């Protein structure tokens, strides 16, 4: 038996609402995945720019990946917005005009392009090793003699300070406290 005026039974509306919540949850998860892959592309870019050369292919694929992931976020947000608007007006419908499908497809394409971009470019030639300058023995001996000289001066300064402190304590007058009536 069908309800009057084309209204759907309450159980059917609850099922539609649950199905739409599942779709919106999936869309939200795919938005999170797309944003994570955009962040991963940034990390990959740092590595690739440092370790590789001839990067025109990398730039192209990275731009395509970012565009695809951005479109995924856009389509997902559009589907969530439509579902929210329809639900607010009491029209629970599973029709999203393909927004969630396009979101998933662009997310997969973007993720694949991010992974592909990590292998583009040719490796840079290894940089030559630079030998650390090691001071000759005469230079080291000169530095050691300067250290010894400074150590002796420090010890002499310490003895002079101790002598001054001792003589000051011997010549200073004790402070007498008077008792007031």
Essential attributes:
181 residues; two-stranded antiparallel ribbon
Reconstruct the topology from this structure.
Blueprint: H1 10-51, E1 52-53, H2 56-88, H3 99-117, E2 122-123, H4 137-171
Antiparallel strand pairs: 1-2
Helix pairs in contact: 1-2, 1-3, 2-3
Could you describe the 3D structure shown?
This protein has 181 residues and is mostly helical. The protein has helices at 10-51, 56-88, 99-117, 137-171; strands at 52-53, 122-123. The chain has a domain at 4-123. The chain has a two-stranded antiparallel ribbon. The chain is elongated, with a radius of gyration of 39 Å.
Provide a concise account of the structure shown.
The protein has helices at 10-51, 56-88, 99-117, 137-171; strands at residues 52-53, 122-123.
Give the amount of beta strand, in percent. Answer: under 5%
Biggest beta-sheet profile: 2 strands, antiparallel
Shape: elongated
The percent of residues in helical segments reads: over 70%
According to DSSP, the number of beta strands is 2
**What's the Cα radius of gyration?**
39 Å
């Amino acid at each position: 038996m069908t309800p009057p005026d084309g209204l759907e039974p309450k159980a059917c509306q609850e099922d539609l609402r649950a199905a739409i919540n599942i779709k919106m949850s999936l869309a939200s998860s795919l938005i999170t995945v797309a944003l994570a892959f955009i962040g991963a592309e940034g990390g990959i870019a740092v590595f690739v720019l440092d370790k590789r050369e001839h990067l025109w292919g990398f730039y192209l694929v990275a731009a395509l990946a970012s565009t695809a992931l951005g479109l995924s976020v856009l389509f997902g947000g559009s589907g969530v917005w439509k579902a929210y608007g329809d639900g607010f007006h009491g029209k629970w419908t599973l029709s999203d005009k393909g927004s969630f499908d396009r979101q998933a497809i662009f997310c997969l394409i973007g993720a694949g392009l991010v992974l592909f971009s990590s292998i583009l470019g040719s490796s840079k030639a290894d940089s030559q090793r630079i030998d650390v300058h090691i001071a000759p023995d005469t230079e080291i001996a000169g530095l050691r003699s300067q250290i010894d000289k400074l150590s002796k001066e420090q010890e002499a300064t310490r003895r002079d300070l101790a002598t001054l402190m001792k003589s000051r304590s011997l010549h200073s007058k004790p402070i007498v406290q008077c008792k007031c009536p």
